[in-house]
Amino acid sequence: MALPATKRYLLELLHKHKLTYEQVAKYSGIDPERIKAIKKGEEPTDEERMRLRDVAYALSELLQKDTGETLD
């Protein structure tokens, strides 16, 4: 079974981009405790989904420009 998109974005930010919860919170404007709760399985709001998606896409785009690497 595939991961929900929001959780996939969050895992990408934390592991692929090696960001901390605090950095993800700073870039997305979401409280760090809320980010931890989403990672543990709580359902994000629509606004949180959009913010995490936007940050993940922006950083992936930067990585692609830097290294030529694309998202899988």
Instruction: Supply the helix-strand structural class.
Output: mainly alpha
- Strand proportion, as a percent range, falls in under 5%
Please mark out the parts with pLDDT under 50 across 5 or more consecutive residues, or reply none.
none
Mean pLDDT: 87
How many β-strand runs?
0
What count of helical segments does DSSP give? 4
Distance, first to last CA: 16 Å
Sheet of most strands: none
The radius of gyration is 12 Å
Order of helices and strands: HHHH
Dominant shape: globular
Report on this model:
With 72 residues, the protein is mostly helical. Helix content is 71%, strand content 0%. It has 4 helices and no strands. The longest helix has 22 residues, at 46-67. The protein is globular and about 35 Å long. The chain starts with a helix and ends in a 5-residue tail after the last helix. The mean pLDDT is 87.
Q: Which key terms come to mind for this protein?
A:
mainly alpha, 72 residues, 71% helix, 0% strand
Gist of the model:
71% of the residues lie in helices and 0% in strands. The protein has helices at residues 5-16, 21-28, 32-40, 46-67.
List the helices and strands and how they pair.
Blueprint: H1 5-16, H2 21-28, H3 32-40, H4 46-67
